[in-house]
Amino acid sequence: MKTTLLTTLSATLAALRQAVDHRPRGFATALLSLALLGGGAYALAAAVVTLAPDVAQLPVREVSETVTPLPLEAQASALDLHRYSLYRSDASRANDTADTLLRRLGMDDPQAADFLRRDPLVHRHLLGRTGRQLSAEASERNTLIKLVARWSPDDDGSFKRLVIEKSGTTFTSRLENASLTASIRIAGATIDSSLFASADEAGIPDAVAIQIAEIFSGDIDFHRELRKGDRYSVVYEVLEGDGEPLRAGRVLSAEFVNGGKAYQAMWFQEPTATNPTPVEEGRPTRTQGRSGYYSLEGQSLKRAYLASPLAFSRVTSGFKMRFHPILQKWTAHLGVDYAAPTGTPVRSVGDGLVEFAGVQGGFGNVVFVRHRNNHVTVYAHLSRIAVRRGQRVEQGQNIGAVGATGWATGPHLHYEFRINGRHQNPLAIARNSESIPVSPAARPVFNRLAAVTRQQLAAAQLLAAR
Fold it and tell me: Which domain does 244 fall in, by range?
């Protein structure tokens, strides 16, 4: 039996080898036959091991084909027909010349540089101007095809577009007006050293950081009260021209956590109200609703007094106080001292009447402003005075500039808040001053918007926590 099985297996293997050598397509059929012989897995494996033909015995076929290359001149002409453009973007600088501008955009084009030097539109609107957004199209030889400069000079919802374009063998220029489009950005940051440093790290524009400081100016003195670890989140507009961001728009909502306490704000425009009282020709009047920043509970953030008489800026935020050689310390007298460069604008913290504007002893150049309820604010050591006695001033109005007159050896502002002649804590007064709530008629609309704002600020907080 064993001999018969081996004889049968040998014969089958010989047949399979012959099939593989002469009829490869019959290989699968032969292999199936082998499996059905009943030899089991062992026999099948043994068969597969011996089926592979010797590589040296496989047939070899050579194929050759003659390829005739195109003439070099034809190849060069074909390559020359393939054109492509290079695109680059940058921002203009105050010290730009025609040559340095083109070089920074990666171009070497004497003809274009000569046109830029001579063109009146380029001189008036581009060279020597900073912050214009530039987009350039260059040829494969790094020569200028098209240069576009965009900027938004006003708050009228439009932007300017200066186009320099190659036309034939010469260049042309034209100035166009176009409409801005607004997109919404959400951002957040944590303060490590300063508000502006954190804004830079998070990619938040300076204009937005300044708006944040202004929005919360009734609650936080950004010159004196910022702490490491304070955090903020913000939802703001970006105004774009042709899809290019040109400048920051309005802050729509923000949250600032200062010393562990959270302050929130939302821009809200009350709906236009209709006055039913008949007027000329029997037509009712329509009154524009109040607008401004409100807490999410509906209280206006505009207070009777600002927390600081100095507007917050990148310059003043990093300006440090110096030791006072006369009084031995800056806070030896009642009031608050703010270090700032000479010439920094000083503003009235509230509406009032100028009671005194001139020179007075150790105060040097000083302004006294009388407000309601026997409230008086004092602004001393000014380098110049911008108001006169008896003049009415509004909250935020410029009344002078920081200086070092009187008993001062370094530039700073000495600021006092007096009630009935007694010195008070200015920040406490500002925080406790009255604010106006959203009108009852606008409350339903306000509440719906506040709910959306809470969700947006929660998303922005996640960015600040990263």
Answer: 185-274+285-302+435-466
